[in-house]
From TrEMBL:
Protein source organism: Flaviflexus salsibiostraticola
Alphabetized InterPro entries for the sequence: Csp_YhjQ (IPR005560), YHJQ-like (IPR044543)
Signal sequence region: none
Cross-referenced Pfam families: Csp (PF03860)
Name of the protein this chain belongs to: Four-helix bundle copper-binding protein
Length: 132
């Protein structure tokens, strides 16, 4: 993946396990995209009023994941406390969004796919956080 390639080109020292970091960044980007697409798909459903909480959760998770991926992509001046706080927030946002999407997964495939992406991102962020 390009994330791993980019991390390998960094001329300085990266104090985090590069494999865990790349996996987390890739999961964060994928989760952000999936949550955004899920929110959009929810808006196209006939039962959109029943999906308000799902849409809101999707959009919050998408933003937190995108921000976390962006910050983790910067190694210069890395601050483990800030990274840890973002990872905690991301884990919680992914857990909440995954739970909400799972409630609708039996009716909407986009919610099932989103819940899966959230769970994967939650795992990847938890692993990275444990390594800090």
């Amino acid at each position: 993946m390009r994330t791993t390639d980019m991390l390998e080109t960094y001329p300085g020292t990266i104090s985090i396990d590069r494999e865990l970091l790349a996996r987390a960044i890739d999961s964060l980007v994928a989760c952000s995209q999936t949550c955004t697409a899920c929110a959009d798909a929810c808006l196209a459903e006939d039962s959109v009023a029943d999906l308000r909480d799902c849409i809101s959760s999707d959009l919050v998770c998408a933003e937190i994941c995108a921000t976390t991926a962006s910050v983790l992509s910067r190694s210069t001046g890395f601050n483990a406390e800030v990274a840890g706080a973002l990872l905690h927030a991301c884990i919680e946002a992914c857990r909440a969004c995954g739970d909400e999407c799972e409630e609708h997964a039996h009716h909407h495939d986009h919610c099932r796919i989103c819940a899966e992406a959230c769970r994967e991102c939650e795992r990847a962020c938890s692993e990275l956080l444990a390594s800090l």
